[in-house]
Amino acid sequence: MKSCILCQSTESKTVFNENGIPILECQNCGHVYSSYEQEEHYEGYWDGAEQTYDLEWWDNAHRAVYSDFIKTYLKEPKGNLLDVGCGLGFFVKAVLQNKPGWTAVGYEISKQAVKFANEQNGMKTVYAGLVQDSKLPKESFDTITLWDVIEHIPKPHSLLTYLYSLLKPGGVLFLQTPNFPIQLAKANLKVKLKGMKEGVHYLEAKDHVNNYKMATLAELGKQCGFTNPEYKVLMPILSVSGSKSKLAVYIKLAYYYFTKLVFTLSFKTINWNNTLFLTLKKP
Questions:
Q1: How confident is the model over 75-96, as pLDDT tens digits?
Q2: What is the pLDDT of residues 245-265, one digit of tens each?
Q3: Is the pTM of this model over 0.90?
Q4: Gene3D superfamilies annotated for this entry (predicted)?
Q5: Per-residue b or e along 111-146, where b marks 16 or more CB atoms closer than 10 Å to that residue's CB
Protein backbone atom coordinates (compact mmCIF):
# COMPACT_ATOMS: atom_id res chain seq x y z
CA MET A 1 0.00 0.00 0.00
CA LYS A 2 1.88 3.02 -1.29
CA SER A 3 -0.93 5.58 -1.36
CA CYS A 4 -4.22 6.46 0.33
CA ILE A 5 -7.29 4.71 -1.07
CA LEU A 6 -9.54 7.72 -0.37
CA CYS A 7 -7.56 10.60 -1.85
CA GLN A 8 -4.61 8.86 -3.60
CA SER A 9 -2.10 11.02 -1.74
CA THR A 10 1.32 9.49 -1.15
CA GLU A 11 2.10 11.87 1.71
CA SER A 12 1.88 9.99 5.00
CA LYS A 13 3.37 9.65 8.46
CA THR A 14 3.94 6.53 10.55
CA VAL A 15 1.56 6.36 13.53
CA PHE A 16 2.53 2.85 14.72
CA ASN A 17 5.15 0.27 13.85
CA GLU A 18 4.08 -3.32 14.41
CA ASN A 19 7.06 -5.65 14.40
CA GLY A 20 8.65 -3.82 11.49
CA ILE A 21 5.46 -3.02 9.56
CA PRO A 22 4.68 0.72 9.53
CA ILE A 23 1.04 1.78 9.83
CA LEU A 24 0.57 5.05 7.99
CA GLU A 25 -1.79 8.00 8.29
CA CYS A 26 -2.54 10.05 5.18
CA GLN A 27 -1.42 13.63 5.66
CA ASN A 28 -4.15 14.88 3.32
CA CYS A 29 -7.38 13.20 4.48
CA GLY A 30 -6.42 11.31 7.66
CA HIS A 31 -7.15 7.78 6.44
CA VAL A 32 -4.95 5.12 8.06
CA TYR A 33 -3.55 2.10 6.26
CA SER A 34 -0.95 -0.59 6.69
CA SER A 35 2.15 -0.55 4.51
CA TYR A 36 1.89 -4.34 4.27
CA GLU A 37 0.96 -5.48 0.76
CA GLN A 38 -1.80 -8.03 1.29
CA GLU A 39 -3.40 -9.80 -1.67
CA GLU A 40 -6.81 -8.43 -2.66
CA HIS A 41 -8.77 -11.62 -1.94
CA TYR A 42 -6.92 -13.15 0.99
CA GLU A 43 -8.23 -16.60 1.90
CA GLY A 44 -5.96 -17.46 4.80
CA TYR A 45 -8.09 -16.02 7.59
CA TRP A 46 -9.89 -19.34 8.20
CA ASP A 47 -6.84 -21.60 7.71
CA GLY A 48 -6.39 -24.44 10.15
CA ALA A 49 -8.23 -27.59 11.09
CA GLU A 50 -11.98 -27.30 11.61
CA GLN A 51 -11.79 -28.55 15.18
CA THR A 52 -9.71 -25.50 16.09
CA TYR A 53 -12.64 -23.12 15.56
CA ASP A 54 -13.39 -21.38 18.84
CA LEU A 55 -17.17 -21.72 18.83
CA GLU A 56 -17.44 -20.04 22.22
CA TRP A 57 -16.09 -16.92 20.48
CA TRP A 58 -17.68 -17.22 17.01
CA ASP A 59 -21.09 -18.39 18.21
CA ASN A 60 -21.94 -17.73 21.87
CA ALA A 61 -19.98 -14.52 22.35
CA HIS A 62 -21.46 -12.95 19.18
CA ARG A 63 -25.11 -13.69 19.98
CA ALA A 64 -25.67 -10.45 21.92
CA VAL A 65 -24.42 -8.14 19.16
CA TYR A 66 -26.30 -10.09 16.49
CA SER A 67 -29.49 -9.84 18.54
CA ASP A 68 -28.92 -6.10 19.04
CA PHE A 69 -28.44 -5.66 15.29
CA ILE A 70 -31.61 -7.56 14.46
CA LYS A 71 -33.69 -5.55 16.94
CA THR A 72 -32.19 -2.26 15.75
CA TYR A 73 -32.15 -2.67 11.98
CA LEU A 74 -34.46 -5.51 10.91
CA LYS A 75 -37.76 -4.05 12.08
CA GLU A 76 -39.74 -4.91 8.96
CA PRO A 77 -41.55 -8.28 9.06
CA LYS A 78 -40.11 -9.32 5.69
CA GLY A 79 -36.96 -8.62 3.75
CA ASN A 80 -33.89 -10.00 2.01
CA LEU A 81 -30.43 -9.86 3.61
CA LEU A 82 -26.97 -10.60 2.23
CA ASP A 83 -24.01 -11.15 4.57
CA VAL A 84 -20.66 -10.71 2.82
CA GLY A 85 -17.67 -12.47 4.37
CA CYS A 86 -20.04 -14.54 6.49
CA GLY A 87 -17.38 -16.86 7.91
CA LEU A 88 -18.90 -19.86 9.69
CA GLY A 89 -22.47 -18.65 9.04
CA PHE A 90 -23.56 -17.77 12.57
CA PHE A 91 -24.98 -14.35 11.66
CA VAL A 92 -26.98 -15.81 8.78
CA LYS A 93 -28.26 -18.41 11.22
CA ALA A 94 -29.25 -15.72 13.76
CA VAL A 95 -31.28 -13.83 11.15
CA LEU A 96 -33.09 -16.94 9.91
CA GLN A 97 -33.91 -18.07 13.46
CA ASN A 98 -35.04 -14.68 14.77
CA LYS A 99 -36.71 -13.20 11.68
CA PRO A 100 -38.67 -15.99 9.98
CA GLY A 101 -40.08 -13.55 7.42
CA TRP A 102 -36.59 -12.69 6.18
CA THR A 103 -34.34 -14.53 3.76
CA ALA A 104 -30.60 -14.49 4.53
CA VAL A 105 -27.79 -15.40 2.13
CA GLY A 106 -24.10 -15.53 2.96
CA TYR A 107 -20.96 -15.41 0.79
CA GLU A 108 -17.50 -16.35 2.04
CA ILE A 109 -14.26 -16.86 0.07
CA SER A 110 -12.96 -19.56 2.43
CA LYS A 111 -14.19 -22.96 1.24
CA GLN A 112 -13.30 -24.47 4.60
CA ALA A 113 -15.46 -21.97 6.52
CA VAL A 114 -18.35 -22.55 4.11
CA LYS A 115 -17.97 -26.31 4.55
CA PHE A 116 -18.46 -25.80 8.30
CA ALA A 117 -21.43 -23.48 7.72
CA ASN A 118 -23.13 -25.97 5.38
CA GLU A 119 -22.35 -29.26 7.09
CA GLN A 120 -22.08 -28.44 10.80
CA ASN A 121 -24.10 -25.24 11.09
CA GLY A 122 -26.87 -26.39 8.75
CA MET A 123 -26.77 -23.22 6.65
CA LYS A 124 -27.90 -24.08 3.13
CA THR A 125 -27.82 -20.47 1.91
CA VAL A 126 -24.12 -19.90 2.57
CA TYR A 127 -21.98 -20.07 -0.56
CA ALA A 128 -18.25 -20.17 -1.31
CA GLY A 129 -16.59 -17.66 -3.60
CA LEU A 130 -16.36 -13.96 -4.29
CA VAL A 131 -19.71 -12.23 -4.02
CA GLN A 132 -18.74 -10.24 -7.13
CA ASP A 133 -18.90 -13.54 -9.08
CA SER A 134 -22.24 -14.60 -7.56
CA LYS A 135 -24.51 -13.29 -10.34
CA LEU A 136 -27.05 -12.32 -7.70
CA PRO A 137 -29.94 -10.31 -9.15
CA LYS A 138 -29.56 -6.53 -9.12
CA GLU A 139 -31.63 -4.50 -6.65
CA SER A 140 -32.73 -7.63 -4.77
CA PHE A 141 -31.62 -6.98 -1.19
CA ASP A 142 -33.00 -4.73 1.55
CA THR A 143 -29.91 -5.04 3.75
CA ILE A 144 -26.29 -6.01 3.10
CA THR A 145 -23.90 -6.57 6.01
CA LEU A 146 -20.13 -6.76 6.30
CA TRP A 147 -18.99 -7.85 9.77
CA ASP A 148 -15.24 -7.40 10.29
CA VAL A 149 -14.62 -7.47 6.54
CA ILE A 150 -13.90 -4.00 5.20
CA GLU A 151 -10.62 -3.62 7.11
CA HIS A 152 -9.21 -6.70 5.34
CA ILE A 153 -9.75 -5.40 1.81
CA PRO A 154 -6.90 -3.41 0.23
CA LYS A 155 -9.08 -1.72 -2.43
CA PRO A 156 -12.70 -1.76 -1.25
CA HIS A 157 -14.31 0.61 -3.77
CA SER A 158 -15.10 -2.02 -6.39
CA LEU A 159 -16.74 -4.31 -3.79
CA LEU A 160 -18.91 -1.55 -2.32
CA THR A 161 -19.91 -0.33 -5.77
CA TYR A 162 -20.98 -3.86 -6.66
CA LEU A 163 -22.95 -4.19 -3.42
CA TYR A 164 -24.61 -0.86 -4.21
CA SER A 165 -25.99 -2.48 -7.38
CA LEU A 166 -27.45 -5.38 -5.37
CA LEU A 167 -29.38 -3.15 -2.96
CA LYS A 168 -32.92 -2.02 -3.62
CA PRO A 169 -33.44 1.75 -3.72
CA GLY A 170 -33.60 2.80 -0.07
CA GLY A 171 -31.67 -0.32 0.94
CA VAL A 172 -29.11 -0.29 3.76
CA LEU A 173 -25.43 -1.20 3.78
CA PHE A 174 -24.06 -2.05 7.25
CA LEU A 175 -20.34 -1.91 7.97
CA GLN A 176 -18.74 -3.06 11.21
CA THR A 177 -15.02 -2.54 11.77
CA PRO A 178 -12.56 -1.68 14.56
CA ASN A 179 -12.58 1.97 15.66
CA PHE A 180 -9.00 2.94 14.80
CA PRO A 181 -8.35 5.80 17.27
CA ILE A 182 -9.38 3.57 20.18
CA GLN A 183 -7.47 0.57 18.82
CA LEU A 184 -4.35 2.72 18.43
CA ALA A 185 -4.59 3.88 22.04
CA LYS A 186 -4.91 0.27 23.20
CA ALA A 187 -1.95 -0.82 21.06
CA ASN A 188 0.26 1.96 22.42
CA LEU A 189 -0.72 0.98 25.97
CA LYS A 190 0.23 -2.65 25.29
CA VAL A 191 3.64 -1.56 24.03
CA LYS A 192 4.22 0.58 27.12
CA LEU A 193 3.22 -2.24 29.47
CA LYS A 194 4.72 -5.26 27.71
CA GLY A 195 6.88 -3.98 24.86
CA MET A 196 6.62 -5.08 21.22
CA LYS A 197 6.49 -8.86 20.90
CA GLU A 198 5.76 -11.35 18.13
CA GLY A 199 2.34 -13.02 18.34
CA VAL A 200 0.70 -10.26 20.39
CA HIS A 201 -2.41 -8.58 18.98
CA TYR A 202 -1.74 -4.90 18.39
CA LEU A 203 -3.30 -3.51 15.20
CA GLU A 204 -3.14 -6.67 13.04
CA ALA A 205 -0.89 -4.97 10.48
CA LYS A 206 -0.92 -7.94 8.07
CA ASP A 207 -4.70 -8.48 8.23
CA HIS A 208 -6.17 -5.02 8.85
CA VAL A 209 -4.75 -3.27 5.82
CA ASN A 210 -7.20 -0.34 6.04
CA ASN A 211 -8.01 1.22 9.41
CA TYR A 212 -11.07 3.43 9.70
CA LYS A 213 -12.23 6.41 11.71
CA MET A 214 -15.80 7.71 11.72
CA ALA A 215 -15.03 10.32 9.06
CA THR A 216 -13.00 8.10 6.73
CA LEU A 217 -15.43 5.15 6.79
CA ALA A 218 -18.33 7.47 5.94
CA GLU A 219 -16.21 9.04 3.18
CA LEU A 220 -15.56 5.61 1.66
CA GLY A 221 -19.31 4.98 1.52
CA LYS A 222 -19.92 8.40 -0.03
CA GLN A 223 -17.34 7.74 -2.75
CA CYS A 224 -19.25 4.56 -3.68
CA GLY A 225 -22.59 6.36 -4.04
CA PHE A 226 -24.07 5.84 -0.58
CA THR A 227 -25.76 8.55 1.49
CA ASN A 228 -27.07 9.15 5.03
CA PRO A 229 -24.19 7.77 7.10
CA GLU A 230 -25.39 6.97 10.61
CA TYR A 231 -23.39 5.52 13.48
CA LYS A 232 -24.73 3.61 16.46
CA VAL A 233 -23.16 1.85 19.43
CA LEU A 234 -24.22 -1.81 19.59
CA MET A 235 -23.51 -4.50 22.15
CA PRO A 236 -19.94 -5.84 22.25
CA ILE A 237 -18.78 -9.39 21.66
CA LEU A 238 -19.21 -10.94 25.10
CA SER A 239 -15.73 -12.37 25.36
CA VAL A 240 -12.19 -11.05 25.52
CA SER A 241 -9.82 -12.62 23.01
CA GLY A 242 -7.19 -14.72 24.74
CA SER A 243 -8.92 -14.57 28.13
CA LYS A 244 -11.42 -16.82 29.92
CA SER A 245 -12.04 -14.25 32.64
CA LYS A 246 -15.67 -13.37 33.36
CA LEU A 247 -14.45 -10.20 35.06
CA ALA A 248 -12.90 -9.10 31.76
CA VAL A 249 -16.32 -9.51 30.09
CA TYR A 250 -18.01 -7.43 32.80
CA ILE A 251 -15.38 -4.71 32.33
CA LYS A 252 -16.00 -4.84 28.58
CA LEU A 253 -19.75 -4.46 29.18
CA ALA A 254 -19.24 -1.55 31.55
CA TYR A 255 -17.05 0.17 28.97
CA TYR A 256 -19.76 -0.39 26.34
CA TYR A 257 -22.41 1.32 28.49
CA PHE A 258 -20.02 4.18 29.23
CA THR A 259 -19.20 4.74 25.56
CA LYS A 260 -22.86 4.53 24.58
CA LEU A 261 -23.70 7.23 27.14
CA VAL A 262 -20.87 9.47 25.88
CA PHE A 263 -21.97 8.91 22.28
CA THR A 264 -25.56 9.86 23.13
CA LEU A 265 -24.69 12.91 25.25
CA SER A 266 -22.31 14.20 22.56
CA PHE A 267 -25.07 13.99 19.92
CA LYS A 268 -23.20 11.14 18.19
CA THR A 269 -19.96 13.09 17.75
CA ILE A 270 -17.71 11.37 20.32
CA ASN A 271 -17.30 7.65 19.71
CA TRP A 272 -14.95 5.93 22.16
CA ASN A 273 -16.37 2.48 21.49
CA ASN A 274 -13.97 -0.26 20.38
CA THR A 275 -16.00 -0.78 17.23
CA LEU A 276 -17.62 1.29 14.51
CA PHE A 277 -21.16 0.36 13.45
CA LEU A 278 -22.18 2.34 10.36
CA THR A 279 -25.24 2.21 8.14
CA LEU A 280 -25.37 3.85 4.72
CA LYS A 281 -28.32 4.10 2.34
CA LYS A 282 -28.75 3.68 -1.37
CA PRO A 283 -30.83 6.65 -2.57
A1: 999 999 999 999 999 999 999 9
A2: 889 999 999 999 999 999 999
A3: yes
A4: Vaccinia Virus protein VP39
A5: ebbbbbbbeebebebbbbeebeeeebeeeebbbbbb
